[in-house]
Automatic annotation (TrEMBL):
Membrane-spanning ranges: 29-52, 58-78, 85-108, 120-145, 157-180
Domain BD-FAE-like: 219-433
GO molecular function, one term: hydrolase activity
Keyword Membrane among record annotations: yes
Region (Disordered): 1-21
Keywords annotated in UniProt: Hydrolase, Membrane, Transmembrane, Transmembrane helix
InterPro entries in alphabetical order: AB_hydrolase_fold, BD-FAE-like_dom, GDXG_lipolytic_enzyme
Protein name: Acetyl esterase/lipase
Length: 478
C-alpha cells in the first residue's frame, strides 16, 4: 500500500494543525475585569478637554490610552481568546505604569495631567489606577485559567465570591467618571475663561487666578450690579469651599457642588446679600489631597488673595479690604488665611510681591485642631486619613490653633450644637485662644443643627445668620 493510501485510510496519522486557543468563558471574573478596564478608560477620557487645554501632549496621550483600552476591551468581550485578554491586560497595565510615573515617581515633565480629573474628588486618579490594576490582574487571570469545566453550583459560588469586587468596580467607575468629568461637562478651568478686567456688572465671570506647577486654577467672580456700586474701589469676600479637605469644587451645580455643601455655608444667599452691599464675591477651586499633598490647598488660597491684590485696579476692588469665609475644611483654610502669616511658609507661586493677608474671617464649623479627631465618625477619620495622613506634625501644621497670635483680623465663628463631624469644641477652643491673644472674635452657637447652617427650625435661622455674616463683613471691611 502506498504512503498516500496509508494516509488516506488513516493507518498513519497525517500532519495536524495545532488547535485554536480555547476561548475563555464570559464569567464573572472576566466581566468584572472588562468593566474595570472600561471604567478606567472613561476616567481618562472624561476630563480630556481640560487636560488638552492644560497640555495638548498629555491630552493626546490620555486620548490614546482611553481609546486603546476601549478597543482592546471590546475585542476581548467579542471574542475572549487568551491573546486578546492579555492584550487588554497590557493596555490596562500601561495606564497603571503611566500613573505611577506621574504620581508616585514624578519623573515625567510638565504639569500633573491628573489634576483636572481631581478637581472634584482629590483622589480620582487613585480610583482610576485601582480600576486599571483590577482590570490587568483579572484579564490576565482569566487568560491563564481559560475555560475549565464547572458544575452549575460551582459557577454560582464563583459569582457570589466575586460579587463584592464587582460592586466596588461598579461604584468606583460611576463615581470616578462623574468626578473626572464633573458630569461629563468638563472639569477645572472653562475654555471661555475671562481676563481679570472689565468684567460685566451683575454677572459671574470665571478667571484663571494662579497656575501652580502648570496647573490652571479657576476663580468665579460675582460682580455687584452697577446700582450697588458706590464709585469707590469695592471690598471682596473670598469664599473657600468645604468638603472634608478632599471633596468639592467652586461650582454651584453638579457633583462637586453637592460634595462641597455650599448650602450649609449659606453661599447663595450670602453672595446675593454681599453683592447687594457692593461686595465682589470670589469663589475658588484649589488643589486637593492626596493628588496634591499639603500644603497645596493653603498655598492656592493664599495665591488667590495675592491675585486679587495684583489685579485690584483692573477689577475695581480695594486691595486693603479683603475678607474670607468658608465652611468645614473651607473654614479651616479661611482661618489659616487670617492667622498664618509669611513666617508659616505657605506663600509660594505667583504674585509674591503682594500680601496674602485678609482683613476679616468667617469660619463656619471648621476644624481648629486636626489632631483632635480620635472620637470623630469613621467617615470623617477616613477623609482625614486620605487627605492628611497620620502625621501629627502635618496635622499640627494644618491646624488654625497653631498660628493664633496678636494682630490677627477679627473673626466670626459659627458652629452647630449638634455637629458630630467637627465637634463644637473646635470652635469654642479657637475663639478662646483668639480672645486670649487680644483678637476680636465672636462665637455663635447655632441650636438645632449639625454640620451645616441651613437646617429648618434652627436658631438663629439661616436668614438671620446671613444677615449677621453680611453685617460682620460690612463692619469689618467698611
Amino acid at each position: 500500500m502506498s504512503d498516500a493510501a496509508l494516509c488516506t485510510t488513516g493507518a498513519f496519522p497525517g500532519p495536524t494543525r495545532s488547535a485554536e486557543p480555547t476561548a475563555v468563558r464570559r464569567g464573572p471574573l472576566l466581566i468584572t475585569a472588562l468593566w474595570a478596564a472600561a471604567g478606567g478608560a472613561a476616567i481618562c477620557l472624561a476630563p480630556l478637554a481640560a487636560v488638552w487645554r492644560m497640555s495638548w501632549p498629555y491630552g493626546l496621550l490620555f486620548l490614546a490610552l482611553g481609546a486603546t483600552q476601549l478597543g482592546t476591551g471590546a475585542a476581548a468581550l467579542a471574542r475572549p481568546a487568551p491573546r486578546r485578554l492579555l492584550l487588554a491586560a497590557t493596555a490596562a497595565l500601561v495606564v497603571v505604569t503611566f500613573w505611577a510615573l506621574t504620581r508616585l515617581a514624578g519623573v515625567l515633565p510638565g504639569p500633573d495631567p491628573w489634576m483636572p480629573g481631581n478637581s472634584v474628588i482629590g483622589f480620582t486618579d487613585y480610583v482610576c489606577a485601582a480600576l486599571e490594576g483590577i482590570a490587568a490582574a483579572g484579564l490576565a487571570g482569566a487568560a491563564v485559567l481559560r475555560r475549565r469545566p464547572r458544575r452549575r453550583a460551582r459557577r454560582a459560588m464563583a459569582a457570589v465570591a466575586i460579587a463584592p469586587l464587582t460592586l466596588v468596580v461598579l461604584l468606583g467607575s460611576f463615581l470616578g467618571v462623574a468626578a473626572a468629568g464633573d458630569g461629563l461637562a468638563g472639569a477645572g478651568l472653562p475654555a471661555d475663561a475671562a481676563k481679570p478686567s472689565n468684567l460685566p456688572a451683575g454677572r459671574r465671570s470665571t478667571v484663571e487666578y494662579c497656575r501652580p506647577d502648570g496647573v490652571p486654577l479657576a476663580m468665579d467672580l460675582y460682580m455687584p450690579s452697577t446700582a450697588a456700586r458706590t464709585g469707590r474701589p469695592m471690598p471682596v469676600a473670598l469664599y473657600v469651599h468645604g468638603g472634608g479637605t478632599i471633596l468639592g469644587d467652586r461650582k454651584t451645580t453638579g457633583l462637586g457642588a453637592a460634595l462641597a455643601n455650599h448650602e450649609g455655608a449659606l453661599f447663595t444667599p450670602l453672595r446675593h446679600r454681599l453683592n447687594a452691599r457692593g461686595f465682589v464675591v470670589a469663589s475658588i477651586d484649589y488643589r486637593m489631597p492626596p493628588g496634591a499633598p499639603w500644603p497645596a490647598s493653603i498655598q492656592d488660597a493664599k495665591c488667590a488673595v495675592r491675585f486679587l491684590r495684583a489685579h485690584a485696579v483692573a477689577l475695581g476692588i480695594d486691595a486693603g479690604r479683603i475678607g474670607a469665609w468658608g465652611s468645614s475644611g473651607g473654614g479651616q483654610l479661611a482661618s489659616l488665611l487670617g492667622l498664618a502669616g509669611p513666617g508659616a511658609g505657605f506663600d509660594a507661586g505667583q504674585y509674591l510681591d503682594e500680601s496674602s493677608a485678609v482683613q476679616a474671617v468667617v469660619d463656619m464649623f471648621g476644624p481648629a485642631d486636626l489632631n483632635d479627631f480620635d472620637d470623630a465618625p469613621p467617615f470623617i477619620r477616613l477623609c482625614l486619613a486620605i487627605g492628611v495622613g497620620d502625621s501629627a506634625g502635618t496635622r499640627r501644621a494644618m491646624s488654625p490653633d497653631t498660628y493664633v497670635s496678636a494682630g490677627a483680623p477679627p473673626f466670626l465663628v459659627l458652629h452647630g450644637d449638634r455637629d458630630e463631624d467637627v465637634f463644637p469644641r473646635h470652635s469654642f477652643g479657637l475663639v478662646a485662644r483668639l480672645r486670649a491673644a487680644g483678637v476680636p472674635a465672636t462665637l455663635i452657637e447655632v441650636h438645632g443643627t449639625g454640620h451645616t447652617l441651613d437646617t429648618p427650625g434652627q436658631t438663629p435661622s439661616p436668614r438671620q445668620l446671613t444677615d449677621t455674616v453680611t453685617a460682620f463683613f460690612v463692619n469689618a471691611l467698611g
